[in-house]
Amino acid sequence: MRTISENQISELVASLFLSCAYCVTDDVSNAVEAALISEESPAGKAALAQILENHKIAREQHLPICQDTGMAVVFAKVGCGCVIDGDFAAAVNAGVRRAYSEGYLRKSVVADPLFERRNTKDNTPTIIHLELVPGDGLELTVTAKGFGSENMSAIKMLSPSDGVGGVIDFVVDTVGKAGPNPCPPVIVGVGIGGTMEYAALLAKQAAIRNVGSRNEDERYAKLEDELLRRINCLGIGPAGTGGRTTALGVNVLFAPTHIAGLPVAVNICCHAARHAKGSI
Ligand code: SF4
């Protein structure tokens, strides 16, 4: 059995959140650069150029990409052959606390969602999703989720008879209603199947899959293409200024579901797409 200490976990969590606060991943930068060439709207082009400039300044000067530095979400793949020496959640929260303090990142979490809404002042607690996997390592994928885009998420329990057309209509309608609010160009994560909460989890994981990656199932890859085409005909455009680049990509993940249902969830990620992966 391999032992992984609380300290190792909090170090990794802190470094991942610090790096993603300042640097979007290459897939996102490349997609924005490609959109700058293909976008036809002058206002849309100008918005894309500003987004690229913002990414560059953030990367070079170690400044947050956006003032909303997000709620911390961690996906942990824990090897069955490892022992966590201590409290896993406490270690993750210590890492988040350190990153948001050392990086001067805005603390955006309130302890009670409805009544007092008092800021916890260290951006914890972290949303943690655990998965047990073979092996003796620990892999962490973190994302700092801004709520301009998170608030535009939606879920619907479709009927199986709604089929592909029903899924497309729901996803396109959700992005259309969101308009400029999620800071387009966006990455649209779609979860299909499972149960209500599992579809939402799939949508979140889909939203942080690399832009330009394709679903391995050709039917779902074609669905991604069609959704991207339809969304980019909405005319919302970069920063909502009009144009063809409303979304940089649409990623779909799917899972088995019940014979009586067709759950569909949409999670939107803004152009400040902050996620990072590391392992111990
Ligand atoms: S949606 Fe994204 S880019 Fe817009 S304010 Fe929130 S974090 Fe920033």
Describe the structure.
The chain is α/β, with parallel strands linked by helices and 280 residues long. It has two domains: 2-20 and 65-145; 148-273, 60s Ribosomal Protein L30, Chain: A (2-Layer Sandwich). The chain has eight helices and ten strands. The chain has a four-stranded mixed β-sheet. A four-stranded mixed β-sheet has the order 6-9-7-8. Strands 1-3 form a two-stranded parallel ribbon. α1 runs parallel beside α4 and α2 (26-38) packs antiparallel against α3 (42-61). The model has no long low-confidence stretch (mean pLDDT 97). Bound molecules: iron/sulfur cluster. Iron/sulfur cluster is lined by residues 66, 68, 146, 148-149, 182-183, 270, 272.
Quick tags:
4-stranded mixed beta sheet, globular, 10 strands, binds iron/sulfur cluster, 60s Ribosomal Protein L30, Chain: A, 8 helices
Topology record:
Layout lengths: L1 E4 H17 L3 H13 L3 H20 L9 E9 L2 E4 L2 H15 L24 E7 L4 E8 L1 H4 L3 E5 L4 H16 L7 E9 L1 H12 L10 H14 L15 E11 L4 E8 L5 E5 L1
Parallel strand pairs: 1-3, 2-4, 7-8
Antiparallel strand pairs: 2-5, 5-10, 6-9, 7-9
Helix pairs in contact: 1-4, 2-3, 6-8
Bound molecules: iron/sulfur cluster.
The site of iron/sulfur cluster has 9 residues, from helix 5.
